[in-house]
Fold this sequence. Notes:
Elements: H1 3-29, E1 34-40, E2 52-57, E3 63-64, E4 69-71, E5 77-79, E6 83-84, E7 89-93, H2 101-112, E8 121-123, E9 134-140, E10 146-153, E11 162-164, E12 173-174, E13 197-199, E14 211-212, E15 218-219, E16 234-239, E17 243-250, E18 257-263, E19 289-295, E20 302-308, E21 316-321, E22 331-332
Parallel strand pairs: 7-8, 10-12
Antiparallel strand pairs: 1-2, 1-11, 2-7, 3-6, 4-5, 4-9, 9-10, 11-13, 14-15, 16-17, 17-20, 18-19, 18-21, 21-22
Amino acid sequence: MTANTAFGEKTMRKARIIGMVTLMSTTLAAANTVAVTEFLNNAEGDDTGREFVELYNYGGSDVDLTGWMLNDEDSDSYTLDATIDAGDFLILVGGDNSITGAAKKALFETEWLSGVPDARVIGMDQSWAFGNSSDEIVLSDADSAVVWNLAYDNDETTGRATFLTVDDYAVTDFGTKAAPGIVREGFDNGSLDFLGYESNDSALAEDPNAYESTELNWGSPFFIVDDTPPADLTLAITGSCPGAMTVDVTNATPNSTIAVIYALSTGSLLVPAGNPCVGTELGLNNTAQLYSTETTDGDGAFSIEVTIPGPGCGLYVQILDLASCDTSNVEQL
Length: 333
């Protein structure tokens, strides 16, 4: 084997490896991290220009939707030609062909966005009309692989959008025309504990972001439900006692009042009548006293430096959020 031949084979092997890496990178970049997070299928007023489907990219990379399809299991079908940025939305506005796609977009922006144009709103220029009582939404990628699908059956509330109540996106299949998976006032996919999609006025999972359009429809376009538990109210005390010490409070209600409480020992005192947050259990005993009330900043934080004299050393301190009635951990001076 000549040197040139060996070099040529090594070059070809290297090219094949580079090609494989490139293919893998392209595949990873095209991950189908797109969910149907909300839809309005039976609007107040004329449905055209008011029915909508919200798509959300929950992944860390932009997704090219060119050639993707939104359809039901009958005749409605729409081909997408857009990119959805990581962590962002697209709103697809539907209805029949009595008005143009541009007019559907403008109507949605007028009624939901105070007339402010938004490139993320797309008026579907093909007829895409929801069934009021039952229908399906099937989202497929450019290779016709189903990315997300759902089906509902005869439980709509006029003028109320349906929203996805969970934010882990682990379930992408919510039924078919033959076996609808959505129950908008109950549990989905036949589960006894999985809410899935709910009407935004559901007693089980009311949409915290819902607001009313000028046409009296309720929805939360461009919002998702974040069911990540809130961070705990936290108290941290640093420094030496006696002497200068720093008190830091985080994760309180922003721009609200907190109570700084101290006691001789820990315990389980209930806040007595005549005080805010009556009945809240503290981690202090019945020697508890109010030291001060303070105001948190816009991030729900508060910090102060204090000088603690000798008699104060050994006291136990806790924070009570007077807006939420949450309590912090207990710290000893």
